[in-house]
């Protein structure tokens, strides 16, 4: 089984995903927020690229969520902070979500057989489900403004570690060079992730505008053991118990 890590959405090509399982990673904050929303009873999350698409796709009763330049979009119910999706009011709601990088990365992965949302907070269970699907795996780091973001790379390194530890197939996993580099970087920083994320570009930016608590939350490892996946209607839903239900026709 091959495991390829792609540094940013700008470097991804559609053909990179054919017949593969894609794990989209946007630690700060889209995939962390999607995982959180669904774990708190949100019915589904529809990821879209643009603000206009979000407004067009909204049906009566749906929530609009999203950000531009890390701030909530005017007129939307919520921004892109995981803490905005922990309230009981989110239960049974559909959220139409647009973010600068993460939802675009999900859209870029549409040729994959399976698309999962990954982050530090669900890495172990997400890696396990990806392995159970018995496809080559692509870890797509969303990045920031079309360039590499350290937090996503370190999270991809954690996924490589989890995949190696959980893999029961022979021969061993074959990881691309960038994936091996991120694995080494994760092993170097794993005991001090909060500090590392607070000091990377994304963490500094969020902290400066009042979202330091988000960064600390998103640095938590395996704290929310559920996995969002993209279904045939292009929405993200949650099947935390039965991986076979993740299989798309």
> From the coordinates shown, what is the CATH architecture of the domain at 2-31 and 101-230?
Alpha-Beta Complex
CATH topology of the domain at 2-31 and 101-230: putative 2-phosphosulfolactate phosphatase
Order of helices and strands: EEHEHEEEHEHEHEHHHHEE
Q: How large a portion of the residues is in β-strands, by DSSP E?
A: 15-25%
H/I helix tally? 9
| Strand line-up across the major sheet | 7-2-8-1-9
Shape: globular
Q: Which descriptors apply to this entry?
A:
9 helices; 5-stranded parallel beta sheet; 11 strands; 18% strand; putative 2-phosphosulfolactate phosphatase; alpha/beta; 4-stranded mixed beta sheet; 249 residues
Structure characterization notes:
It is a single chain. The two termini are 21 Å apart. Helix 4 packs across helix 5, helix 5 crosses helix 6 and helix 8 crosses helix 9. This protein has nine helices and eleven strands. The strands form three sheets. A five-stranded parallel beta sheet has the order 7-2-8-1-9, sandwiched between helices. A four-stranded mixed beta sheet has the order 3-6-4-5, with helices on both faces. It is α/β, with parallel strands linked by helices and 249 residues long. It has a domain of 160 residues: putative 2-phosphosulfolactate phosphatase, CATH 3.90.1560. It is 35% helix and 18% strand. It holds the Pfam family 2-ph_phosp. GO terms for molecular function: 2-phosphosulfolactate phosphatase activity; magnesium ion binding; sulfopyruvate decarboxylase activity. Keywords: Hydrolase, Magnesium. This is Probable 2-phosphosulfolactate phosphatase. Its cofactor is Mg(2+).
